[in-house]
Amino acid sequence: MTFTLNDEQRLLKDSARDFIREQAPVSRLRKARDAKANGRDPDLWREMAAMGWAGILVPEEFGGAGLGYVGLGVVLEETGRTLAASPLLSTAMIGASALMLGGSDAQKQEWLPKIAAGEVTFALAIDEGAHHAPQASKLKGSGGKISGAKKYVADGHIADVFLVGAADGLYLVRADAKGVARKELITVDSRGAADVTFDGAEAQKLGDAKVLEQLLDRARIGLAAEMLGQAQQAFEITGDYLKTRKQFGQVIGGFQALQHRAAKMFTDMELTRSCVYAALDALDRDAKNLAEYASLAKARAGETLHLVSNELVQMHGGIGMTDEHDAGLYLKRARVAEALYGGASYHRDRYATLLGF
């Protein structure tokens, strides 16, 4: 199946690229890192909300734009290009999706307008160990309360609301509720996270295990779109360097060995783009085999980003190993994104299982 962006989606993508390049270049993340902000950039989040990005998924009746998952995906892709630190994925993608999947009318009325306005931030608390294993959750909900602990909650240090995965489904918990405690984590990608514990915290049930799995697939696809942008930018930076850096009297891009490696990256990039856009389109089509699309997109994006971020450093040689160059920032973010919501090996195994192997 061939997928092509429509005029509205292309316009959204182009405007996002212009905004991100002007307002959130990599230098903004570097400055925040040096200031030890740990992923906090409320001004950028307000600017994104003013652009309408926080409400891309939210239906118009709740104050959003209702532009669908492809629309939000192309924006996430552009934010990935400059490693922009924001709760766009955790709030506009995951938070809005959770409420649309399992929220009651009252819950939607309470939270979706706030998401669309950029007035609230969400975080998905899913893993309880060093590896992604949502099916092994020991956290339990009973009588409107939940107890347990979650490790490495992305954006958990800045979230107003937690979406908590449990053995019996998905729960919504306010971050300021009694019984909620979080330990802020300083992360290698300068984005920040938190370990969160729940001790009899008041919780609202959003859905069963099926709803949780559907939400996780949306999180994986959204992250894959962001990773696609990271890989694309890293590839372009590397390509520009190959065309300008001279060694032994000629540009290094003229060496056949490097041309072969560049060709490998190019073909992997195109394959990844196809997988990610197909997954986003599957969300908008409400495809029955969405889980397959999600695992395919996340696995492919992880493998491609791993390759391209490595080559970005290696092909730049000595300068690529220094903090002065942006290569290290892309490499560090790549390693975090690869593992978040399941790495390539997890999703290859899941994909094979879904296909009956």
Judging from the principal axes of the Cα atoms, what is the shape? globular
CATH architecture of the largest domain: Up-down Bundle
Low-confidence segments, ≥5 residues, pLDDT <50?
none
In total, the number of strands is 10
Element string (H = helix, E = strand): HHHHHHEEEEEEEEHEEHHHH
Largest sheet: 4 strands, mixed
Strand content: 5-15%
CATH-defined topology of the largest domain: Butyryl-CoA Dehydrogenase, subunit A, domain 3
Q: Please tell me the total number of domains.
A: 3
Mean pLDDT equals 95
Describe this structure in words.
The chain is an alpha+beta fold and 357 residues long. It has three domains: 7-116, Orthogonal Bundle (Butyryl-Coa Dehydrogenase, subunit A, domain 1); 122-207, Butyryl-CoA Dehydrogenase, subunit A, domain 2, CATH 2.40.110; 211-354, Butyryl-CoA Dehydrogenase, subunit A, domain 3. It has helices at 7-23, 26-34, 42-50, 68-81, 88-102, 105-116, 209-244, 256-285, 290-315, 327-339, 344-354, and strands spanning 122-125, 140-142, 145-154, 161-166, 169-174, 180-185, 193-202, 204-207, 246-247, 250-251. Strands 1-4-5-8 form a four-stranded mixed sheet. Strands 2-3-7-6 form a four-stranded antiparallel sheet, with no helix packed on it. Strands 9-10 form a two-stranded antiparallel ribbon. Helix 5 runs antiparallel to helix 6, helix 5 runs antiparallel to helix 7 and helix 7 packs antiparallel against helix 10. The longest helix is centred in the middle third of the chain and has 36 residues, at 209-244. The chain is globular and about 75 Å long. The mean pLDDT is 95.
